[in-house]
Specification:
Number of strands: 4
Largest sheet: 2 strands, antiparallel
Helix content: 55-70%
Oligomer: single chain
Distance between the termini: 58 Å
Shape: rod-shaped
Strand order of the largest sheet: 1-2
Number of helices: 7
Length: 203
Amino acid sequence: AGTIVAATIGVGIIAFSPLIEQTGYRDPLGFLALPPLLWAALRCGPRDTATTALIFSGFAAWGVLAGSGPFLAATFNESFLLFVMFTIGVSIAGLAVSADVAARRRLEGKLRQQEQILRTMFSQAIVGIAQIDMAGRFSLVNNRLCEIVRRPAPQLLQMRIEDLAVPEDAPYLRDLLQQAVQTGEGFAIEFRHVLPDGSRLWL
C-alpha cells in the first residue's frame, strides 16, 4: 500500500499539481493516473483504490484552483467540469474493477475451502472411492480403496478399472463402461479382483 501511495503522489505532482509549469507536452501526462489506479484495484482492494482516487482528485483539484494542470480551460467553470468528470470517471472505474476483483477473490477462497473439505472427506471415507476418465483410467483414488485392493495410489493411477478385474470379467466391465460413456447413464457391477498375493476378492 505504501508503494502505491508513493507512486500516486509522484504521478499527482507530475501530472496535476501547479508545481510544474503547464505546457502542451504535459497534458497527456494525465493518463499516468491509470497504472497506479489499476495496480491498487487489481492487487490491493477497494480501500486502497478509493485512497488512490482521492489522492488524484486532490492533486487535480489543486491544479484547477491554481489555474494549472491538464484540466485548464477558458473559464473556471469549464475547468471545474473537466475536473468533476475526471474524478467521477476515476472513482467509478477504479472501484468497479476493485469490487469485481475482491468478489472473485472471496469466491476463490470459498471454492478452495470447499475443495479442501471435499478432499478431506474423500480421503477419510470408510468406503473405497475412485474417479475414472472416459477410457476407464483411474484419475483419483482414496486411501480406503488402496487398502481394499492392496495397491498404492501411484500404481492404481497407472491402471484402468478393467485391470482390476479377472480376465473373465474384464470384457463385460469394458462394455458397461463404453455404454455408460455413450449414454451418460451409470451402472452397478460386482466383479472379481485378483489381489497381489493371488487371492480373489469381489468388488
